[in-house]
Amino acid sequence: MSLSLRSLSLWYQRKTNERTVARIRKKSGSMWGMEMLILRTTGRRSGLVRETPLSWFADGDGWLVVASGGGDRNPDWFANLTARPDGVSVERHGEEPVAVRPVVLDADERASAWDRVVEAQPRYAKYQKKSSREYPLVKLVASA
Description:
Pfam families: F420H2_quin_red
Number of strands: 8
Shape: globular
Distance between the termini: 49 Å
Protein name: Nitroreductase
Oligomer: single chain
């Protein structure tokens, strides 16, 4: 049986995500010096629930997340979130999931938020410099 490199990479990413999600739930919401959350989206094609561990940054009444993975394209979780924004929730260590409304930041909002992200975690500036695309920033606001 021959697997394409993309299929193998996707399998590895999903397995790593599963392990990281389990760690966030059982042990801690902090990894690699960053606060982590579990983003729950619905697959845009499959309709299946997807859980993605992401670092987050406080932003007033919400959480900022950076769509930095995915190589030369946006990560799958971002495509799922924008295609199906109604079923999105976040879960943090020791807390129940919270339904959220995702807001993709426009240029002005993004510039200000990006400065705060790279001040808190300079590694994101390094990642951005290596990428050919501008990373989208998403604010996740708790739904009423």
